[in-house]
Each structure stands twice: as C-alpha cells, then as structure tokens.
Design a protein that fits this description.
Blueprint: E1 2-5, H1 6-11, H2 13-20, E2 25-29, E3 32-37, H3 40-61, H4 70-77
Parallel strand pairs: 1-2
Antiparallel strand pairs: 2-3
Amino acid sequence: MSVISVSDLKTNPARAIDSSQESPVALQKRNKVKAYIVGKDLFEKIVSYIENYIDSEAVKSTNFSKGRDFEKIARELGI
C-alpha cells in the first residue's frame, strides 16, 4: 500500500489517483492516516461484496419452513 501526504496530494492529485488503481493509497496528515484512496474497480468490488453479504444474511435469517414462497420473499428482499 502506498502512502501519500495531504500536501503531496494537493501538489499532484493525478499521481495519487493513478497509484490507487493498483492498490489503496493511505492519505496521511501529520503522520497519521486520515483516509484511503481506492481505485474504481476495487471500490466496485467492495460494494458488490457488501451487497452480496447483506443479501446472503437476509436469506439465512428467513425461515422457509413456514411454507412461504421463495420467489415472493426474494422480491421482498430485492434479490
């Protein structure tokens, strides 16, 4: 993971953005990490993973033994 200071980010934001395409970039202010810059592809993967996790937890918590229709429940859950 790359590390960049706030002042370096102000000086050359394009370099930080380009670096973030390969791996996250830690943004430091006064030698403390304050934020991370992640590239578009990684961000989309993270969002997709979180959405899939939430959906799978919703399915796991549903009690299908009560005879409810899976398709109806899936529509209610938006999956």
